[in-house]
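Hey, why these numbers?
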Amino acid sequence: MINLANKRLLLLGGSLWKDAIKDFADEHNIILIATGNDASAGIFEIAHEHYNVDSTDAEAMKQLIREKNIDGVYMGGSEPVISVACSYLNELGLPCYCTKEQWELLQNKSKFKHLLIEHGLPVAPKYDISSLEDIGSLANEITFPVITKPTDGCGSNGFSVCNNLEELKEGYKRASVASASGNVIVEKFVKNDGVVVFYTFSNGKMYFSGLEDKYPVRYQEQGSYVAGMFIFESPSTMAFRQKFDCKLQNMFSSIGIKEGTIWIEVFCDGDNFYFNEAGFRYGGSVSIYPVDYLYNINQVAADIYYALTGESKIYGHISLINPAKQKESYYCVYGLHLNPGTIQSINGLDEICEMSNIIALPITKVIGTNVASTGSITQVFGFVHFVFDTQEQWREIVDKIHATIIVTDEAGNNMLVPKINADSLKLRL
């Protein structure tokens, strides 16, 4: 293994798992450098040096990398940052887990679906609609409900379920505004419960890294369905792997993917699976923790090592998961969502983290953050990662979370939305 001592690592994000980055850096005496103009970002807390440079400005980043003798660049999870970085890193000859072409292929929902079809993987039927005018001309051919979403969006922004022609027109407009390109996908609505599958790549080999059941919720009438929670391992795991592992390995090999982390969202309709979209990064609910807990793969350590050396290595737990944490049958990622307002105080986080069942509690917002009413993932406060054995135990932990964590606005109101109703969701255990 290459000695990492005194290597200079530029961090482009990673605040939600800053402790995991710091643990690995401290163990190997790596010098951490942060960039950006948000001094409240958690990544600034662990950096030895920091510079006020826009991470999406390619020319400024290239200059910084040259002037500060950067040995490698670690990309957190921000899609705009990764999109820019994968171009200039290859230009500078620094290790990068993906090419610009690979990133765009997996990022663009339409292109990704074409790739899936080429490799015999099922996708939801799509309507050939490229403008509002097309909706009127195809009205008699559309079977509702359908969904609309931007081809290049993320985080459920611009996503709508449409039950009639008027809703379709409004959903199309909403998706078009949320898309950088203005392009919109219209396709059959498949029951929104589904699964998300994770894979880790090293030297071209694909390592299965978990299959979670997805429990979407909608907190606002006009809002998107967002991640209420996820539970590993899905009862569908073995059936899914037998059907699709080999096809997915062949598909990713065909476009030259050798390193990094990929997640894929898949909808379920009875016994049928429909592949939806992918991310060439960690999952938004901070999937590094369940991947480590369930499969002994520390993706943060592996990605840092690759960024600094260009060599691939699968790391085990290291210190990402406290070995004292008890093993249970199920792993839950529980989303904490906020009502609109400005955060005045945050209480109860330390008490929750001290519970034996709690694995991690990454928080996305700080005091002073203004939470707008978007009905999307932008209203997420954080994700509680915990383990449990029974549905009753799940209820007890969720009750404790909502009784303990208090996020108040300037009027003293608790901004945290009410707890998820397990009965309405019908936990698939």
Q: What stands out?
A: The domain at 8-105 is CATH 3.40.50.20 (Rossmann fold).
